[in-house]
Amino acid sequence: MNMMTRLVGLLAGCMLFMATAQANSLYQDLGEQEGIANLVEELLFNIADDRRIRHHFADTDMERLHRMLTEQICELAGGPCTYSGDDMVTSHTGMGVTRADFNALVENLQLAMDDHGISVGAQNRLLALLAPMHHEIVGL
Ligand code: HEM
Fold first, then answer.
1. 46 CA from centroid of ligand 1 (Å)
2. DSSP helix/strand/coil, 126
3. pLDDT of residue 24
4. CA-to-CA distance for 105 and 113, rounded, in angstroms?
5. What is the pLDDT of residues 19-76, one digit of tens each?
6. pLDDT per residue over 83-125, tens digit each?
7. Best of 65, 66, 67 to mutate for ligand 1, by most ligand atoms within 8 A of CB?
8. Are residues 98 and 138 in contact, defined by beta-carbon separation less than 8 angstroms?
């Protein structure tokens, strides 16, 4: 095999590797429907244990919140779901959620993702999708 053939082979191998790596969607990396439902369950347990923010959820129907968050994250991650809940402004108006509350919730999500063995790359991709929502949640 001459040098050129080897180089072309190597290049094709690299491209195939990159294409395969890219093919894994965030939805798959989060463990699809079941993985996301488990992740949200743990997020809600973490929130219930968190003195900084748990008071916000005192009157909340946690079963509905679990269903809605699971749908929302599934859809955001590119999964086959359609979020059927209220929009973020409507859901959070009148709560007085602060930036610190928002960060605390994100911290609880990160803890849940760590516990579920979600890769740092996938964690960052999900957080990047959620971070811009603070405009629709904080200070209303
Ligand atoms: C990226 C951040 C957040 C996302 C994606 C998010 C998402 C959601 C979703 C999908 C719902 C359900 C809406 C429905 O029932 O139709 C909801 C409700 C709720 N959220 Fe958030 N939320 C976020 C941040 C926060 C924060 C920081 C707090 C307070 C610390 C908070 C407190 C609540 C509460 C208390 C409810 C339930 C409202 C009710 O009882 O009707 N959320 N949120």
1. 14
2. helix
3. 78
4. 12
5. 545 557 999 999 999 999 999 999 999 999 999 999 999 999 999 999 999 999 999 9
6. 999 999 999 999 999 999 999 999 999 999 999 999 999 999 9
7. 65
8. yes
Sketch the domain layout of the chain as residue ranges: 29-136
Find tokens 């294409």 and name the residue.
19
- Domain 29-136 CATH assignment equals 1.10.490.10: yes
The span from the CA of 118 to the CA of 39, in Å, is 10
Contacts of 127 (CB under 8 A, 6+ apart): 106, 109, 110
Instruction: Answer whether 100's CB lies under 8 Å from 52's CB.
Output: yes
Measured in Å, residue 91 CA sits from the centre of ligand 1 at: 6
CA 83 to chain centre: 14
